[in-house]
Design brief:
Radius of gyration: 18 Å
Helix content: 25-40%
Number of strands: 16
Largest sheet: 6 strands, mixed
Structural class: alpha+beta
Shape: globular
CATH superfamily: Endonuclease/exonuclease/phosphatase
Length: 259
Amino acid sequence: MLVRSWNLFHGNTVPAGRHAYLDEMVSLATADDPDVLCLQEVPAWALDRFTVGDLAARPSLGPLPIPAAVGRLLTAPNHGLFRSLFAGQGNAMQIGPRLRVLRHDVEVLNPRSFRSAQSASLGLDTVMRLAWAKERRVVQAARLRHDDGRTIVVANMHCTSSRDSRIPTVEIERAARFALACAEQDDIVVLAGDFNVVAGAAVYRELTETYAFSHPGPWIDHVLVRGADVSEPRVWDDGRRARGPVLMSDHAPIEVDVR
C-alpha cells in the first residue's frame, strides 16, 4: 500500500510566480494511483475535491470571513504574492479504490485552551503567543478498511511553523495521541504530513521508542507507520516536480510502502 504526503504550498512554485499549479500538482501526485495521498496547504475552495477535506484557516479579508469562492477570486491575480492571505487553507486526503472510509475525525492542533496551557509551561513571551495564535492548524484522521479486511488509521497533520521548535513539537505529540485514540486494537496507524520539525529532534525518538512508529524522513515532511512493515521513506527529486524553470511547491512529496 503506497502512502504519499505533499505540502502543496497553495499551488505555488519556487521561485514564486503569478500562476498556480494546483491542478497539475494533484494530477502528478495521483498519476500512479497511490492508496492514500495526504495533502497540506490546500486552498479552502479546493477541499471538496478530495475524499476527505478539513478547513484549518478560514478564507478572510482581514478580520472579515468571506466565501471560499471570493477568496479564490481575490488570489487569482497573483498566487505567488497572496498565497493563503484570502483563500484560507486546510488538509485533504485522497483515498484509493482499494480502501473504504469507515470514519472521519478532525482535531484542532492549537486551540486556545491548549495554547494557553502550553505557553505557560514553555514560558513563551507575548510575541510568540500571538504568533502561535495567528493561524489555526488541524490534524484529520480517516479510519479505513482495505479490500483484504485490514483496517488502518491515517492521520494527516500540518503543524505550526515557528522559530521555536517546541511549538510544533507539542502539536506533533497532540496529533500522535489523537491518531492513536482514533484507532482500534490491531489497526495500522499512519502519521503523515508537514511536521515542521526537522528530523533528528527528540520528538521523533519519542514517537519511535515510546509509540513504535517507524523512522522519519530527512526533513520536516514525514510518513510514520505503526503496526506494519514499512519501506524506507522516499523523497521525490526535484526533476519529478519541475515544470520548466520552476519547482511545483516549496516541499517535495514523501512516500512509503506499507506492507
